[in-house]
């Protein structure tokens, strides 16, 4: 990422916002009657948690809108925004996402704090690896756990359509590590 990341305020994460996407409401059973209602809820939830001095990493699949609407949404979302591009963001180059309002944009996974791999799609990890993966993409697919000691799915559906702070994420992962192995367990994350 070209811009030097300087931590100010709190750090938040969310994936799979899909602003403007009527189809995602049906596909994932989102509790909204229209894209407009979903967009409004996503923006209200974001701005209720995030201040102008905070940073938010969007782990892919930001919006299906055109240039002007995306610029408007980004202008109305608080904080410094970083995009790890997802499969539904590839219609633009990283420079275009930056021009729209993201502080930085990467088409590749990024290492955060030397340990956390930020990606759109889940990455392979095993218990012998010293890394953790924060990802999205899988939405409500029950083949993936919401949280484990080494990973957390931050798809909007799994986190109450509201960005989670880094402190909340690390606490949830720590709780899972301390609980030990949990074969077949897949609890939903709730706020």
What would CATH call the homologous superfamily?
Metallo-dependent phosphatases
Output the radius of gyration. 16 Å
For the sheet with most strands, the description reads:
5 strands, mixed
- Helix-strand pattern: EHHEHEHEEEEEEH
The portion of residues forming beta strands comes to 15-25%
Helix/strand-derived category reads alpha/beta
Distance between the termini: 31 Å
Give the CATH architecture. 4-Layer Sandwich
Describe this structure in words.
The chain is an alpha/beta fold and 191 residues long. It has one domain (11-179): Metallo-dependent phosphatases (Purple Acid Phosphatase, chain A, domain 2). It is built from five helices and nine strands. Helix 4 (94-100) links the parallel strand 3 (80-84) and strand 4 (104-106).
Please describe the structure with a list of short key phrases separated by commas or semicolons.
four-stranded mixed β-sheet, alpha/beta, globular, five-stranded mixed β-sheet, Purple Acid Phosphatase, chain A, domain 2, 191 residues, 27% helix
Fold topology:
Layout: E1 11-14, H1 22-27, H2 35-49, E2 55-58, H3 67-76, E3 80-84, H4 94-100, E4 104-106, E5 110-112, E6 116-118, E7 132-135, E8 151-153, E9 164-165, H5 166-179
